[in-house]
Amino acid sequence: MSIKEIYNSVVNSERIQNALKNWIALNLSLLAIMLLSRLFFMIATYIHFQLNCSYIIDIFSGSVFDIILLCHIAFFTLIPYVALEYYFPKFAKKTFSGAIVLYALLSVLLTIYFCNTTKPLDHVILVYSPHDVIHTAISSVSVSIIAILFFITVILSSFLVLRFILKIKCSGIVILCFLIISAIVSLCVNYQKIIRKEYGFDTKTEFYLAVNQVSFSIIDICDYLEKEGEKESTSNIRDEATTYQNLHPQFEYTCYDYPFERKNVGEDRLGNFFRTDTFKESPNFVFIIIEGLGKRLTGTEEQTFIATPFLDSLSKNGLYWENCLSSAERTFGALPAIFASVPHGEKGFSNIWKPIPEHNSLLKDLQKNGYYTSFFYGGSQSFDGQDEFMKANNISFILEIEKNSINKNKKYATNNRWGLDDAELFALAKKRKSQENKTPFADIYLTLTTHEPFEFEGIEPYEKRIRKDAQNIVNEKERENVLNNLNVFACFQYMDDCVRNLMDFYKTLPEYDNTIFIITGDHRMCPLLVWDDPLMKYNVPLIIYSPLLTRAKTMECVVSHYDITPSIDAFLANNYDYNIDEICHWLGNSFDTTTEFQCKKRQAFMLNNRCVSDYICDTFFVCDKHLYRVGRNLLIQKVDSVELLEKLTKELNNYQSLSVYANQNNRLIHNLSNRK
Prior knowledge:
The chain is of the alpha/beta class. The chain has helices at residues 3-10, 14-49, 53-61, 63-87, 89-117, 124-127, 130-140, 145-165, 172-188, 191-197, 204-210, 213-228, 237-246, 309-316, 334-340, 362-368, 386-392, 401-404, 410-414, 422-435, 459-470, 476-483, 486-507, 564-575, 642-664; strands spanning 262-263, 284-290, 319-325, 372-377, 397-398, 441-446, 515-521, 539-545, 553-560, 583-584, 602-605, 614-617, 620-623, 626-630, 636-638.
């Protein structure tokens, strides 16, 4: 008996045969749209990032993902589709065609997302509120004619593909072969395991470029929802606390139920750099936290293009740590790490707990010692729980843009959709300080202009100047990166000018000579990431500048945002009439001030999706199940050591378990109000 006769004997119904033909035509249409979407993804990422040849090969090699996924979809939709079309032929065809068009639509949106974040969409959309998700999407994406044409082209192409392929008549042998292939692939290949384990790729970047964006997002979100239902076990907290505390013998911990609580005996390593006998009063502080400020912005190891000339001049005349690390991939981690040195918790310290767990902080210590504290931010203070954190730390004043200025200031609504431009924010702050300047003070600024979509009023002259200066860059890669991101570097030079003007204002105040300026980035910006170095996204500069400084110094040693609070508290307590609590929960230590490169940090990092999968331990770095050795300039090299990777991964998991436990159970520190 021939194959055709076998086929006809199995499916002798004409209606079933038509359903099978339409089923295979729809699946072939889906495959064509998958491959077409991959082509558009390559075009978009090449334009946005100027990808080299190897990355383009990675994108097209990912077609294997599409084919395997198609086989799974075809196999598991066979019976449902045939049954549905048998009774409702028009409805079945339109429903599956609509699903294919929806796939094309999602592919376009995920391509745009990738170009803005350098990674596929994961469960990050579930850790933000719906309001914050919408606010982020609207604020970060700049709509252009090219983007609109790109969107329309993909959708029209999907309709044309469907219209063309659905007219193709498939023979019985083609249908049978397709059935056999899809069945074999589906039963023999675990697609979800391939995605979760990232089989076949050496780096995260290669995998992110190759993977099917839609399936990655769905699998990751489903995995997250499944894990959300699992409760953390706290039965081994004592053992976990013992393990963690033994890894930090430099600290004297008080107990196991409060695993991070320790004696506050930080060494003063800043005092030797300052004239502490010039004024009787303790110094004022100005913290400037700059959105996305990081090293190697031009994507080269030895950056020659000066994106921030004023900040560079401050670094040469102050204390400058080249290798400072943030605590998280995005802004949500900056304020808690810088001002409270607290562990991350499950989803970030400042935007999940109501009330926020009992904790100590630099801000509370400043308040108790008579400081007037102010927070100036040009966007929505409620985003990422910034207002909750500041209020929990008894902040004296928060600039409320939405209540006071949004109706009067068109810039908030039209110029930079995240909020006010830096110049406008600083103008409001200067007006406030001119009217009511209380001392001693600690002013905190969090800037915005160097954030997507990288727009501000008057950007054209900056872009023109940068285009001219870029012609003198010798390194071709660096020159191309600057020219291809004129708006980004224009925002950084604009920010630099704004900070210069802000500093000029403080020079007019009588308190300037007794003021210390601390400047850092909240994290390194994503669009100009150094693709092959995942540690760079946490690398931010740290500058301390003051007229009180006795000398300047540039240091290559690795420090962290977590070190800022313990360092300043120790400096003030050892040199002024300044009282601090005997007990603290600081994750950081006093600043290392070694000139040469060295790293003595044990620190975990939280990603934007609130996963804690990155960890640095001395000169080793764990990044999502890969192990690297860290060298000068935080350059990394992959290391093959299963034993060491497992050891450091256990340390990371142990920290995060304690971090979640301490925050969820209010076990960071004993109630401070009961302390004598």
